[in-house]
Amino acid sequence: MDSNVIARRCFEVTKPEDEDWRREEIKGQLPAEQIRGELGKALEYNKVVVVSGGTGSGKSTQLPQFILDDWREWKIERPEDAPEEEPLNLEVGITVEVEYEEVWYACEVLEVAEDRSTIFAKYFDGGDEEPDIDVKTRVRKARPAWARTVPRIVVTQPRRIAAISLAQRVAWERFAEVGGEIGHSIRGDTIMPNSDTGTVEFCTVGTLLRRVVNDPLLGRYNVVILDEVHERDLMTDFLLILMREVVAKRPDLRLVLMSATLDVQTFVNYLPGCHVLEVPSGTRYPVEEIHLDDPFFADFQETESLLMSEASAREATGFEQRGGGLHEFGVGDAATASEEKEELVQEVSALLEDDEMQRAWGAYSDSVLGGDRDPAQHTPHALRSFLSHVGNEQGGQDEEEEVEQEPPSAVLAEQIQQLSSFSDEIRQAWTEYRSEREGNESPQEWESSELLAFLAKQGIRPWKVERASWEVTSSSLWWGSENNDITFLKLVEATILKVVPEMLEVPADDEFGVGAVLCFLPGWAEIKLLADRLEGSSDADNLWVLRLHSMVTRDEQQQIFEPAPEGKVKVILGTNIAESSVTINDVRVVVDAGLHREVSYDPKRRMSSLETVWICQSNAVQRKGRAGRVRAGRVFRLYSREQFESVPWRPAPEMQRCNLSQTCLQTIALGRDPREFLANAPDPPAVALVEAAMAELTAIDAIRDGVPPQMLPVGQVLCRMPLEPLLGRAMILGSLFGIPQMTAALLAVSSGRSPFLMPPDKRNQAKEARKEYCPWSDTVASLRALMEFERIYQERGEYAAKSWSEYFFINFQRMMGFSRIKFQLLLDVQRSGLLGAADSEGMDPEEWVGEAEDWEGGGFPDTSESDGAIFEAQEGGVGMEKREWLEELRTSDREVEDERLLIGILCAAYPTNIAVREQSSHKKHKTPSGAMAIIDPRSVNSNIRSSQDEQESATLPSPSWWVYSTLRMHNSQLNMQDTTLVSGWHVALFGGLRAREEPSLELDGWIGVQGNSDEANSLVVHLREEIRQALIWVAIATSWDRVAQAATSRSKALFRVLAKSLVLQKPAEEDLQYLRDWQLPELEEGAATLQAAEEEEREEVEERLWKKTVVELKVLLREMNAKVSGRKAELVERCADCLMYGSEDSGEAVEEFKEELSFA
């Protein structure tokens, strides 16, 4: 495309009296309507537009419709200094535009007159042909193909539920159904839009990222809208990096970023020149803020203890009392509180001389500080938060544009330290490099050039980012625990029950009804527990309790938009998804617990944890904005004003606090170096996070590190799976062992979310019920329960499965979720080429409904005649009948097939999450970092020790080895969650990422492996190498390499022998004989290792190639010196030709490709 051309779209705002396809009750009712004209002008002249506005302003539903309805024809504008456009050159076969009745149509030129005054052309639209078309009056040069398209709009959402509900809502507003102009695309549930006049597609961020891999320039869309960008989740930041590059290459593409907060400075800095629009934010009616230290809560018995816990937690975490009654982090050499406040007031006042800063201050003070515009009336923390909010934390100084320079020595030294901790080779090289240098200075004091020289020798790209673009603020951990979270939930319950009678006093003829209560809770466990308490309370008849969470069905999720039954108040219990992703119009009261779940990751200890943390100020403002849409509202904040002022304005981006191994793998799949690519993020991650991820990928043979890193066959398979690389490798291993279904189930339940319920009043009963499934593994207990649940569901039906779940303290919805995850994993493994279609047959839980055959008259004993008597403890033991019937549903022998082998696969999934208990009577375990941890009190293993149970301790060896899913810090004590007792053989064969064989086998630098004999030690070393090589061969075999397929067949036979040995059974003689006789296949000179037409029909070869991404196809073609440009269909056809019949350009290219595969 001509780089001098600027593609400009003329948007014409549809007048209300014209064709506005929306419902009458929608037109002009939402604040977003006020920027419709500005949006059109902004999109006409700008490639990137940032739209900010409060929750409920209509951004998510109305803006995509405005763009769809106001779309008009492209105009091509050329700058004054651009060279003149070339004249029309008429030739047979070219595309031109022909005027017919004042409309221009694209046509193909079939003939050109000798004098070139007329042409004979065929219309693309309809296929009609027309002769003698006058060139001078009716023919013009055709516009580019992209300029002739209708609007194709894609809108990303961070959550599945938001993508689906928004698509349904927008379709409803347009008197349509999902599948016409409006569609949605999420994993496992896609209804694509289909309309000739334009489409809007709502999808998750992950869905669009997968499409970027296949279509790097996103050619199918001309407007991309990224919604909820303020949440700064990992995939959204990753997509932002890509979109900044795509926008620069496509003059016709428009990128719209939508944020529900006024915090747009980060995006303005990241995308220079973007246009900013602000939707009038704030509630349409006043919303009263009521905090825990206000009189409303004075009479609650829980208030005093919660306020004391708050204060104690702030003091324990480093806060000290400062001027103005505000707690701040202590800072050495700080000025007095009054001096500091005076400086901050002067600083803010100086900024307010700028009109734009005045508007920002006004918006901030209205939404956060209660509306007082005088800086002197606010605390230092509030003023500093504002300065951070506008990106001027460093005293408002104008930052000059940074020039590229050498990274600081401290950053490079940190990178080398991280590399050394993950690689024995680099550690040795670094030791030698330091010994050769004169002087005793620390590496942080070296010249950057010296450290860069070392990295260059190792083939590692230096990390060029010193810090994030804004100061990272970590979230504050909540002080709650298993014991006092009931106190917290009791206060939530009491608050709801106190406001409901007031809401019911609304007059009967009120057009908005009694309204709804929206309660923000940290997670599903709290939602479930509070719902049970409310539904069992004395006021239950006045409540319509709804749960807003992915664990409930879609029908129940949609109920939140419906009015409550007469005489009831709708009470919605949700998580932070309700902050911005979903708008509920009739909310009058918001109950804000002030908490949410947040993932954190420590790369040095390889420790991921899901913590309950305090929300930031921006989250609190968002939650407040859910009320006051139809009448005045109230927000009850179950935390004090001091607590609100002590938390940061915004949370750290997810990219700076999570494991980046999957992100780095996807980056390499795009042909990029993660160290360079992720440094271009709006707020780049720390060097330790990136180096830990690269070390992990190198250790599992997914990549070969260097400049740039190279994708290896194992990595190519892993990047096609929606799993963390270690879990994906475990899935491949399960396929090699021939148990893909059980492996998928194991990985589904090992996510850290237990299906077992723990009601506070029945904790001991629930724990014993869990132990009945497995007394030595939380994960295996969940796996056995899942297998039993699926059997009952398929044999007896949904009603029986629900009754069984309730009786045995099992979460029915979570079990259904596990089954769906298991099925989706099997489909993903099939697409990667590791499995056939038969391996997932009957696994789709959506197909189970209605499948259960009659048993003795139905899926559950008929109760229609007995009026529910079967469920009542009446005379004659009828109550026992149900208990006995439910007990019959349980399997006497719950051990699943190949269970001991699955424990090995669990070790492979969490190879670094291994701990050892030296003495069976002790409670503490040594973890890889050297820290001591205990088993989580909720675990089935929490009481395994000799002092309590001699019989149990007799089966617990000393030392004992354990695998856990996560470590969590609780009350200054590390807790291991989801623990499983494993054998020494499991650890020796499947544990650890790094193995050193001399002088004896050592895993990850701390686990020594010593067998009873030299033969045992040698066997372990050889079996670990066999497992490593098998993963590589099976990855290559997905490309139909004959040698790899033969090697994979041998590996599978070996694994069958190993599987029998691990479960103490005798291997099959045919497998042993196969291994004795096996030889690497010999190929005649010039023969292709890849299967050709005589073994696989061309249609099947092309079908498999279609499963590969465009990037993977181009890699194959580039390796064979073939042309790599063109659409995917062309790449597939060309690739099939090369693989089956040899390269287009060189006969040696295929041989080189074969050698590379064999070497890998």
TrEMBL record:
Helicase C-terminal domain span: 498-671
Domain of life: Eukaryota
Domain spans labelled SAP: 1105-1139
Pfam family, one: Helicase_C
Region (Disordered): 918-953
Gene3D superfamilies: 1.20.120.1080, P-loop containing nucleotide triphosphate hydrolases (3.40.50.300), SAP domain (1.10.720.30)
Keyword ATP-binding: yes
Domain Helicase ATP-binding: 40-280
Keywords, alphabetical: ATP-binding, Helicase, Hydrolase, Nucleotide-binding
One function term, GO molecular function aspect: hydrolase activity
UniProt name for this protein: ATP-dependent RNA helicase
